[in-house]
Design goal:
Chain lengths: ~650, ~240
């Protein structure tokens, strides 16, 4: 008996023995070591391709609340995290299910990619290849490293600048791995210098196979133009939202002077000018015959970016993610309006705000470039917003329109190129966006199903059609899963495929994402010139007006700062620029201070012999319910991740 | 016999499992800290925003990397934190509505700690009166301003309204009309002799004030001071008005 007990104890003790085996020290068989990978040119190219994918490009697969390259498969019923845009965080648009305004919260901390770039740069001299190839790869690595650090700097300010391979030594205190943060100024200088190193040996043109997907020297100049403008703006406008704390005391954020601002503006001007003068890039179809052609041309840039390579400097491509896992994007599936939805359970999720629609010019073209606010009233009052269209006052002097689309008749071509407006035609379908109706007796039926027999004896429906497949607006607000109908009165057109068939499943979109195009460079040049008094102001105005002419305008407007900034909002709408423009110019916290974005609610007035449409200006349903949205100044910099272990100094107010 | 084996097996199994359980016997927070933000001039409470307002930034000493905690301050300027570890702390009073300063190595002992902070507010909203003008159907606020230091300028003044006591720059109705706020651009030095009047037209905001109930109003002043970080609004105490 005692022997058996002994055996049992021995058996039990043996359970602990496997823990003594150093199985973690075995080299994995499904991975290639860095030494092996970087031993020849093909391995280097594999790593380079991986690094391209690790660049923090805020493209169609970027979820600002989650991460880059977000490809979570939501399955057949989930869709919460997908179909997202950084545009929803601004006054350009809302996600149809409602969203507040806040900071990007993607947790980006790209030091894994920095480490790989550093290993690549370290290994390049030892790999057998000809010099020109090596030089090009080296410059390409600098371009990627600049891009990564730009992604870090605009989120965190000054960050640790690591440009060598760090080695972990087992058993030591590894003090060499604790790299402190550099100042914000040093970080911007590093990024701009990396761009210069990238420019040195990147080619002016790449092979047809690579297209504009692979970096050229113009892509490096474009990155420099964008980054320098960002740095200059922060330097100039820091005092609009000053912060205090240890990070400020040590200049890890802020700490730049007017002289720094002017230096960065000049670098932006010079980089932009290099592209404009020497790249051969031009605006895509710069002289349209008419407004309709201009709208079509503008839409085509984003629908078929490959055809617009004359303007596109750098873009990101996709393969069909419904066929190949972790590829593709969901733009068409999630953003088509309800009437043309592709068959997935969620759609119509992109609702452009009235704030942007009002901003577009019309074709008065009187040389002022003033916005043409939509005319909804006969008394000229266009700043009267109701908290909800359900409480509208039917006795107010609303202007009647015979057709849904009439109110938008003379607006800038880029509006119809970027936004699906009520009554417009999309994929051969007239898009009906209607919030309700006024009954014959003057009572209203708003945001709810119902119908009314008009004075003409016909039946009219509150949402514009009897069937849920017959309209695209205002149904299901407040219910996240059902919010597939525009909550602002508009739907997005930019980036969507109108004629090409896209499968109605997640990740089925393959439309290229344009990261840099000449239009942005024009606007960067113009802004830097006007802000700093450097560069050629007349040329800045010329570029500004070239963009307007491409939109079929016929006049020239002055190159003032306000005109340039407005043009930027219009030309680059939904392209991810607005969020960072508000950050770098420190305008976010004043623009969003208990602010409610706005909607336009078309209402059918059945009191008329033939019902006409009126348009009610309303605060957006979700922003109204939230009591307005606010951007806190501390969000201009995000919290440095992991300060308890990486010993970095935290940003202010975190 | 089998029973013995089972018991032995169970015994060994429990030994293995129980060994992995270690009681978390770290002590919990043992100190309570409370007090108020007081004006150094007259020890009156300095009004705050409970949401996105001034905060007390503290760092517990004794760790290799110091991490900030932020203690929220009530609207009236009082604060309380009942879950604090007794230790030495650095306290940073910054990014608020008063001139910043730092308290180094403050000892927080076990039990109650009453710590008041004597501060210089950027702006004092003085002689504030908020009343309901029945004749014109308006809420009217009259007040004057006093600068905390002679260099302080004023950026804007606003009469805020809301349905509870937390009324302020972040918790407010979006009121319509022109006279509930005044912006100074460029910012100007504060003249204590100037009397200001702001008003909210109730007829123009009928959807906000449509229900008969108590409403709360507070006058806020936003200062313009350089080199102090984020500036929060200074207030007079709220006034409750039944409408």
């Amino acid at each position: 008996m005692r022997r058996k007990i002994l055996y049992i104890y021995i058996a039990a003790a043996s359970l602990f023995l496997p823990a003594c085996k150093k199985f973690l020290d075995i080299q994995p068989l499904n991975k290639v070591s860095a030494t092996t990978l970087l031993s020849d040119i093909s391995g280097v190219k594999v790593l380079m391709a991986t690094l391209y994918n690790k660049m923090p490009i805020e493209d169609f697969s970027y979820n600002p609340g989650k991460m880059f390259n977000y490809h979570k498969d939501a399955g057949s019923t989930g869709f919460v995290d997908l179909g997202w845009s950084i545009s929803f965080y601004t006054d350009e648009s809302l996600v149809t299910a409602g969203s507040g305004v806040g900071p990007v919260n993607d947790g980006y901390w790209g030091y894994d990619a920095v480490s790989q770039v550093n290993q690549l740069i370290n290994a390049l001299p030892t790999v057998t290849m000809d010099k020109s190839q090596r030089d090009r790869l080296l410059s390409e690595a600098h371009f990627i490293r600049a891009y990564i650090y730009f992604g870090l700097a605009k989120r965190y300010g000054g960050v640790p600048l690591i440009d060598t391979v760090l080695t972990y030594v087992a058993g030591s205190d590894n003090a060499n791995l604790y790299i402190p943060r550099n100042t914000e100024k040093e970080t911007w200088n590093f990024i701009l210098n990396e761009c210069d190193l990238a420019v040195q040996n990147l080619p002016a043109t790449v092979s047809a196979v690579d297209g504009t997907y692979r970096a050229t020297k113009w892509a490096a100049y474009a990155l420099k133009s964008r980054a320098a403008l960002f740095a200059a703006s922060v330097a100039k406008y820091w005092n609009n939202a000053p912060l205090s704390g240890v990070a400020v005391d040590q200049n890890l954020v802020g700490g730049m002077t007017v002289s720094d601002a002017n230096n960065y503006y000049l670098q932006c001007i010079n980089a932009s000018k290099q592209i404009i003068d020497n790249s051969g890039k031009q605006l895509y179809k710069p002289s349209p015959a008419n407004k309709a052609e201009a709208a079509k041309n503008y839409q085509d840039i984003f629908q078929n970016p490959a055809n617009a390579d004359v303007e596109v400097i750098f873009k990101k491509g996709y393969i069909d993610g419904s066929v190949t896992r972790l590829q593709g994007h969901c733009t068409d599936v999630y953003f088509n309006p309800a009437q043309t939805n592709l068959g997935y359970i969620a759609y119509g999720r992109f609702s452009p705000a009235l704030d942007l629609v009002d901003l577009y010019e019309d074709y008065t073209d009187d040389g002022t470039g003033k916005s043409a606010t939509l005319v909804t009233r006969t008394d000229g009052v266009e700043n009267d917003y109701v908290t909800s269209a359900t409480v509208m006052n039917v006795t107010k002097p609303y202007k009647s329109y015979a057709n849904l689309s009439d109110i938008f008749a003379n607006k800038d071509a880029r509006m119809s190129g970027a936004i699906i407006t009520p009554g417009s035609t999309w994929k051969g379908v007239t898009i009906i966006i209607q919030g309700g109706l006024i009954k014959k007796d003057g009572s209203t039926l708003i945001f709810t199903d119902g119908s009314e027999t008009g004075l003409d004896g016909k039946t009219y429906y509150s949402f514009g059609a009897s069937s849920t497949t017959g309209y695209s607006g205002f149904r299901g607000m407040g219910v996240f899963d059902n919010a597939n109908y525009s909550c602002t009165g508009f739907s997005v057109k930019k980036f969507l495929q109108e004629s090409k068939t896209v499968t109605g499943v997640q990740f089925s979109s393959t439309t290229d994402y344009i990261d840099f195009r000449l239009a942005e460079i024009y606007l960067n040049y113009a802004e830097a010139t006007v802000e700093s008094g450097q560069g050629d102001a007349a040329l800045a105005a010329t570029y500004l007006n070239a963009l307007r002419k491409r939109a079929a305008h016929t006049d020239n407007i002055p190159g003032t700062l306000s005109n340039i900034l407005k043009e930027r909002r219009i030309e680059l709408a939904f392209e991810g620029q607005r969020y960072w423009d508000l950050v770098r110019r420190r305008e976010f916290h004043t623009l969003f201070n208990g602010t409610k974005r706005k909607s336009l609610v078309p209402v059918l007035d059945c009191r008329q012999p033939t019902p006409n449409y009126i348009f009610v200006r309303s605060y957006n349903y979700y922003d109204q319910n939230a009591g307005g949205v606010t951007f806190n100044p501390q969000w201009y910099y995000r919290a440095i991740p992991g300060v308890a272990t990486n010993n970095l100094i935290q940003n202010p107010q975190y | 016999m089998k029973k013995i084996y089972y018991l032995l097996f169970l015994f060994v199994y429990l030994i293995i499992v129980v060994c992995s359980c270690k009681k978390d016997d770290f002590p919990g927070p043992n100190a309570q800290v409370f007090g108020a933000i007081k004006d150094s001039l007259n020890a009156s409470l300095v009004e705050q925003d409970v949401q996105t307002g001034s905060q007390i930034e503290v760092q517990e000493l004794g760790f290799p990397t110091l991490v900030s905690q932020f203690w929220v301050i009530e609207n009236d300027g009082e604060y309380r934190n009942n879950l604090v570890f007794s230790n030495n702390y650095d306290i940073y009073m910054r990014n608020g509505n008063f001139f910043p300063y730092t308290l180094k190595s403050v000892t927080i002992k076990p039990g109650d700690n009453n710590i008041d902070f004597s501060v210089v507010p950027y702006v004092r909203v003085k002689n504030c009166s908020i009343t309901y003008d029945q004749t014109n159907n308006k809420i009217v606020a009259t007040f004057s301003l006093e600068a905390g230091k002679p260099t302080v300028k004023i950026k804007s003044i606003t009469l805020y309204a809301f349905s509870d006591i937390y009324v302020g720059a972040f918790i407010k109705f979006t009121t319509a009309g022109a006279n509930f706020s005044q912006t100074f651009s460029p910012t100007v030095l504060i003249n204590p002799a100037t009397n200001y009047t702001l008003s909210i037209d109730l007829a123009a905001n009928s959807t906000l004030f449509g229900i008969h109930r108590d409403y709360f109003f507070r006058v806020g002043a936003m200062a313009d001071v350089t080199g102090v970080g984020t500036i929060r609004t200074n207030y007079a105490p709220y006034v409750k008005i039944p409408l």
